[in-house]
């Protein structure tokens, strides 16, 4: 008879680890949760036993609190063995913010995808004036009001404040690379959309996936057009990438960048596709009666009040959805009074039908 039992849950049971304390959750795999000063108040980092040393996957944001936790962990739980390598899944500050700091502190090489390194370097080395000018021009084009623009300008280059100087040299990670870490073989599987070339690590023998932010439980990865890449189409990249992970066995244990480890990656991917299809149709419906800017669509796509930190991500995501629709002919863009607005006579879209179209 076929075994139709569900795979055992994870944790079963396992409490959240104390922040800043590496906690072993599987043989040789340690969960290290660090605090973030946002509504999403934590990030998951992973420390792998590498025999004669350790491999760190992601480092957290550049904050005094996280630096303190790292310095404590390195002299207590991880003491006695060197750090052999630091892996950055992607360039976002909550994941790569301390790669440069830790690399110098423990004299370890950093491995990341070249596209991630280039974007981190480009944004983090902009002067506050350059960063603000680029961000304001992009946000104003998409309808953000002057009062909010002025508040955002006061923050300067907030990216640079959250990331230590990025390393000048690094080991390149690419799709299909195999890393031997502590007796396990991990293959690099590249995701796109949330960032340019997000490196996930797949251990086939044990059905383990270090997922970073590419596949998250419960919450959806932010898919944004950035002011530094205004012509990008990240939602197309993200939806195309769903096929990259759809083959994973249902009992794969995903170790995500936020929340808790989970199983059921294929089901989660279907949920993510449905989530974006819903937002695409909501955007189309809102543009039927009158042209709308990305800023005007934020209340349609997000049903909650937002602070300035969240509005940056919401606007970037609104632009991503509008870009996806405009490039497929569902929306017509026009620029009037310096603001880009979108209109449509095609109020619905089916992602399944889009995927049937010849490329």
Number of strands: 14
Q: Helical element count?
A: 12
CATH topology of the largest domain: the name is: Metallo-beta-lactamase, Chain A
Largest sheet: number of strands, sense, barrel closure: 7 strands, mixed
Q: What features would you highlight for this structure?
A:
12 helices; Arc Repressor Mutant, subunit A; seven-stranded mixed beta sheet; five-stranded mixed beta sheet; 2 domains; single chain; 359 residues; alpha/beta; Metallo-beta-lactamase, Chain A; globular
Task: Please give a quick description of this structure.
By secondary structure, the protein is of the alpha/beta class. Helix content is 36%, strand content 19%.
Can you tell me about this structure?
This protein has 359 residues and is of the alpha/beta class. The protein has 2 domains: 251 residues, Ribonuclease Z/Hydroxyacylglutathione hydrolase-like (Metallo-beta-lactamase, Chain A, 4-Layer Sandwich), CATH 3.60.15; 75 residues, Winged helix-like DNA-binding domain superfamily/Winged helix DNA-binding domain (Arc Repressor Mutant, subunit A, Orthogonal Bundle), CATH 1.10.10.10. Helix content is 36%, strand content 19%. Strands 1-2-3-4-5-6-7 form a 7-stranded mixed β-sheet. The chain has a 5-stranded mixed β-sheet with strand order 8-9-10-11-12. A two-stranded antiparallel ribbon has the order 13-14. Helix 5 runs antiparallel to helix 6, helix 9 packs across helix 11 and helix 10 packs across helix 11. The longest helix is centred in the last third of the chain and has 22 residues.
């Amino acid at each position: 008879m076929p075994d139709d039992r569900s795979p055992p849950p994870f944790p079963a049971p396992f409490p959240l680890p104390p922040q800043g304390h590496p906690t072993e959750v599987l043989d040789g795999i340690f969960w290290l949760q660090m605090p973030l000063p946002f509504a999403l108040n934590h990030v998951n980092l992973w420390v792998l036993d590498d025999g004669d040393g350790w491999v760190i996957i992601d480092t957290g944001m550049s904050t005094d609190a996280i630096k303190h936790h790292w310095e404590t962990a390195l002299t207590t739980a991880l003491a006695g063995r060197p750090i052999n390598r630091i892996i950055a899944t992607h360039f976002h500050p909550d994941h790569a913010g301390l790669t440069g700091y830790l690399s110098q502190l423990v004299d370890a090489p950093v491995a990341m995808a070249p596209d991630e390194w280039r974007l981190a370097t480009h944004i983090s080395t902009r002067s506050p004036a350059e960063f603000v000018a680029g961000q304001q021009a992009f946000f104003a084009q998409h309808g953000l009001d002057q009062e909010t623009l002025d508040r955002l300008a006061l923050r300067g280059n907030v990216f640079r404040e959250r990331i230590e100087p990025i390393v000048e040299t690094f080991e390149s990670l690419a799709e299909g690379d195999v890393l031997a870490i502590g007796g396990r073989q991990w293959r690099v599987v590249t995701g796109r959309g949330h960032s340019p070339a997000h490196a996930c690590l797949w251990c086939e023998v044990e059905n383990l996936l270090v997922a970073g932010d590419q596949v998250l439980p419960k919450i959806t990865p932010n898919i944004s057009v950035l002011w530094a890449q205004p012509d990008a189409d990240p939602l197309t990249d993200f939806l195309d990438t769903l096929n990259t992970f759809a083959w994973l066995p249902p009992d794969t244990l995903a170790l995500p960048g936020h929340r808790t480890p989970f199983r059921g990656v294929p089901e989660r991917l279907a949920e993510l596709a449905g989530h974006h299809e819903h937002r695409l149709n909501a955007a189309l419906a809102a543009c039927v009666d009158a042209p709308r800017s990305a800023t005007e669509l934020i209340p349609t796509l997000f049903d909650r009040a937002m602070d300035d930190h969240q509005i940056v991500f919401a606007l970037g995501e609104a632009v991503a959805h509008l870009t996806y629709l405009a490039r497929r002919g569902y929306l017509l863009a026009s620029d009037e009074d310096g603001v880009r607005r979108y209109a449509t006579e095609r109020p619905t879209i089916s992602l399944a039908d889009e995927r049937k179209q010849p490329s």
